[in-house]
Records
---
Amino acid sequence: MEDRLQMYNTLTRNIERFVPNEPGKVAMYTCGPTVYHFAHIGNLRSYIQEDVLEKTLRYLGYDVKRVMNITDVGHLSDDGDNGEDKMVKGAQREHKTVMEIAKFYTDAFFEDCRKLNIKTPDVVEPATGCIPEFIHMIEVLLEKGYAYQAGENVYFDTSKLKEYYVLTNHSEDSLLEGVRDDVDVDPNKKNKNDFVLWFTKSKFEDQALKWDSPWGVGYPGWHIECSCISMKHLGEYMDIHCGGVDNIFPHHTNEIAQSESYLGHKWCNYWFHVNHLNDRNGKMSKSKGATLTVSVVEENGYNPLVYRMFCLQSHYRKPLEFSYEVMDQVKAAYEKLRRRLSGLAETVSACKAGEVDTEAFAQFRKQFEDALCNDLNTASALTVLYDVLKADISDATKVALTDSFDEVLSLDLTKPLPETEGSGADDELTSWIEEMIAKRTEAKKAKDFATADAIRAELLERGVAIKDTREGVVWELV
Ligand code: AMP
Ligand code: ZN
């Protein structure tokens, strides 16, 4: 197969043709959620775009294996021994054990993913399931001289690397100001960017989860989990590693440092990062209190797939600002699209109407693939869908193309909207429309086509389009 996908690679800072290590196969890893709170819709923007990447690869014919971790231990807000442990903090807040917190928020995360039609990765592995692998990697790093023990913790020694900032152009000073301004200095570290691989001494005396290790009872640092979990399931060579842009430094930088020091060779070829969703006040944060979650979006009257479409309308590498005004516009467009397409699909299946025009199908499919192959331009891919609807091709071809595109878009486009949703018409309007349609049917029976046409025009004036099908008259708000 031809490798057609062009995508931006954070490692080279260029748009490049994606060529996997093994022809036709993709080994892909996603940094999973830290399960101490509900995911906010910013986190979910990253997972939606990564889902689009995975589904695009499958659509193009690749055999994809995707692995994701669940961070249920060790995510400190700092790389030394002085940050906050997010899981412990979550457990204290809710008077539950860390494992109860982890289970509850892992389930909540997958429920959100289900609502957003985000496919569950082929392998999902919690960090607490891989402690022996972490210990093994740390032992090798110590043996090879890339790690040291200090203050009863084990640290990665960044001074042993030829190049540490492989993913960023940042100077150390700008990193200090921009990213790490809340961080106290850990006196055990030999170098500012050194990070903890294993904690045995910690200010968290109430740290709930601890394991025995060659360095004493303790728990792993955050970065080590992604290196080990990915290698456990994908081997020593990986094609694509994904995450939000905040993961670039220090998380992914540290993953590369420890993985390549451990392996002695290059580890992952392509780094895919999704830019942030911001609210009006700036970056969203799980720890900030009032969080925008999928449930909040639903409570405000939006189908979660409206949010998926909101994301697909912009490019994943650009920051995106959330607003309910834009959500309202997307909601109207989404409901109109879905009413139209589910209506078409119903007509096609009821009447077995029209053949699929294979030439037109191939031509539009190619246009759709080209949009995605252009660094995942989902907005252009949606435009191709609108072009299909406008095209002079059979309804059956339109429906077949929509179903095909929906393998990637995952917007349930040909499924009827639930009763409560999306007719956009209140009861009074609905009964008026039905009355008018009944009058028009009578007029047509009586061969009074002038009246029938006048009724159609009156309906249209009120924003209601009608269509005669073999199953009767269908209508939609336009
Ligand atoms: P966490 O659960 O904090 O480890 O984050 C889960 C994923 O969401 C990571 O890939 C983050 O990079 C990503 N992320 C965090 N905040 C945002 C945001 N505001 N917009 C988009 N992605 C984000
Ligand atoms: Zn990770």
---
Amino acid sequence: MKVFVLNCGSSSVKYQLFNMEDESVMAKGLVERIGSDDAILTHTPTGRSSVKQVSSILDHTTAIGQVLEMLVHPEHGVIRDISEIRAVGHRVLHGGPTFTQSVLINSEVKDAIRDCIPLGPLHNPANLMGILAAESNIPGVPQVAVFDTAFHQTMPKHAFLYPLPYVLYERHKVRRYGFHGTSHRYIARRAAEALNRPSKGLRLISCHLGNGASVAAIKDGKCIDTSMGLTPLEGLMMGTRSGDIDPAVVFYVMKHENLTIDEMDSLLNKHSGLLGVSGISGDMREIEAAVKSGDERAKVAFDIYEYRIRKYIGAYAVALDGVDAIVFTAGIGENSPFLRQRVCEGLGFLGVTIDPEKNNSRGKEVNITGEDSKVKVLVIPTNEELVIARDTLEIVSAANSGN
Ligand code: ADP
């Protein structure tokens, strides 16, 4: 079965076409600048060179229509006919408290995704647009929604509730939801496979360190706590997001800098983190280069970044009552031996050591555990699209067989 995976943003569509016979990727690509006359479609059929097409693409329906044309293109295509696509899987950011797992999309599901817009005001409208655009391009093909929040719905109440007036939880669903759930779920399964252990009894700390970053504490394959909260702003320091700060900083800065709510939101989400502290960039490659050339602000930005990861690992080792493995994933986790080394150096009290030679690797699955380490340390490239394709196949196959 061919499964089409979509990740729709407000002005972009990322896609991958999977052949689920062997879980291989047949083609992948990206449409950027949707809504403009010079939108760019970059399409890469596996094993062949990429093609770039610039044209006017004013909405998601046109964008997905052009991607489908590319998939059947005589020269750049990978399938003969659109009817070969038997299911579509969508990444959806916020499933609120409603969705604890992936679901087949119907009108009630679309309404529920719409109901979650206040919780995910930037992403959920775009995700919904993607669903409607896919429906209008390939009507009748079943679609599945895979939520970034779903994996974290197993958190106990004492981990997901904020110490605020309870009425805010009841009235406005204010609580910790967590994000990157699809990635943490992939890591939980893959780490158990790599360690050749059943999920039952395994205590994992999964560190997803990309532009956004989060940590999850996973016991018996289930999330028991995670660092992102009501929104992706909480938790670790990130590329441009602050992560945890004293909430009183918000009123203090708004008052003294005379900022509106939107300006303060932008300051915390887009101008803080590595970028805000270093004044150089939110991109870890540039921060590392600046640290190595002796830049003081880059150095302190890097120090805060790795210190906060260590604090979360310490806290989650307590939450899990011990830790069997720590996993690094996503852009920084997969590609930065420097960051992994610095984090692990500071975890001596947990009995963590790493093998410097094995750690000297980028973008590959590798066990970097030191010989005398009490805790396993793994690098696992994440694969959220594959999880979406697997869920889609499973749900659509079950629906087809009448389960
Ligand atoms: P997103 O959250 O947008 O999916 P990614 O998972 O692609 O982000 O991660 C992007 C981050 O990974 C950036 O900070 C980038 O600098 C970092 N990164 C990528 N390659 C390297 C590398 N070789 N060394 C250090 N950081 C890297």
---
Amino acid sequence: MPVFPRLLRSCPRRLRSAALSVLATLATVAALVVGVGAPQAAAASSLPCDVYAAAGTPCVAAHSLVRALYSSYNGSLYQVKRASDGATANIGLLSAGGYANAAAQDSFCSGTTCIITEIYDQSPRHNHLTVEGAGGAGAADVGAPADALPVTVGGHQVYGLEISAGMGYRDNSTSGVAVNGQAEGMYMVTSGTHVNGSCCFDYGNAETNNKDTGNGHMDAINFGTECWFSPCYGQGPWVQADLENGLFQSDAGYSKNTSNTGTGPLPFVTALLKNNGQNHFALKYGNAQNGGLTTTYSGGEPTASGYSPMHQEGAIVLGTGGDNSNGSIGSFFEGVMTSGIPTDAADNAVQADIVSAGYGGPTGSTGTLNAGSEISLRATTSCCTTDYIRHQNNAAVISPVASGSSSLDKNDATWIVRRGLADSSCVSFESRNYPGDFLRHFDYRLYRQPMDGTSQFRSDATFCPQTGKSGTGTSFASYNYPTKYLRHYNSNVYLASNGGSNAWDSSTSWSNDVSWAVSSPWAP
Ligand code: AHR
């Protein structure tokens, strides 16, 4: 990490000049006046880029793995490449203006694994994203696994993009994207459950050479728990502006908004940034499943030199920092960039459309081991017949869940059955409230962890169902340790053999402890 940002952090400029203050106020008033005169945001049934076009700020980039962003779009969303023979396939939509045809991916990638090699721009600008090359701060990235983030959107099972460290996408030769102080807006739908404090899970405007070329050369939404300029309030994750050499929550860098404690672990988050390129930027976030947008900052550009005016270069980055700092993780479902600053009314209409798209809705199937079914897994040992496997502090445990339990407890105790990540004749269990996180073993203990695409993870997260060893329910053999089964022991969940060197391999009660009732989900 460069030394310069550290200096900035320890020495923020706290005072804006009176002149800048006046200019910012005038700009705000001007924006409001323009907003009044501009075409009104389209009806909520319009998709995000229809809304922004109607508001006079058309999309110059529209990327999504899960759905169309124009009601007329019927092209490809993304390209996958399979490991077995290196062949590629484009994944499109079920219908114009509709949802992704994930079944086409499942069929193409059947029996092997696929990575996402290109994310197509639905806008007429053709600003497609490919796997990012080496940069000033990171070696060349790799493509994200195509099946790492299964989610339901609008009742359809689709796949989001799950970024682990070392993954990122970019287009360094774009058309129509803001440069050198031009105005732009952008949003992405991401997740508050798959974040870290490393640099820099970004979507937006970046340098064209993958290097840090100085303050103001980026204008991207950042989402994560990295607090670049102290103080930040709460635990995050926060929606921030990566304007290069800093993740900004205000013109001073640090948060001036004590109520901006971040989104917490919301499964689906709308993150929005708009910047007039001269003297004003704004940050907003919302729950992508419900409700409207909250503005966490609206004010002047950073007071440090180089940000006013901005010096955007017009590349588009997804998943890394501008110099390919790629230690960050994150989730991406859809995002757009506009030419010009969208009105708040247009932002609100887009948020309403995102909510109506139905992120994370019920899969439509419950209580079975078929792929896509939501289940809860109940212990059958006599001690514990009201206990279910849940995640708690990232580990798997059993604990009682009942109709009066909290929504959090019910969600933590609900799993979505997925085709086995290592073997499609077996199963994997995705967390209901942490999209892209699966039940996996590590040192024979079970945890909820994000799928990173490695064959180790795939094997550790795959379980093969058999008739319950006690004669009741179902037992789950580990894919890579087939004589070991999912077992509860002292309220923790382990992989256990019937007798062995670990305490949890105890033969006492083993057959009951490894037999589970596949039950209706607590949080369908
Ligand atoms: O601004 C934060 C990060 O600093 C940028 O993304 C990166 O280019 C630099 O390391």
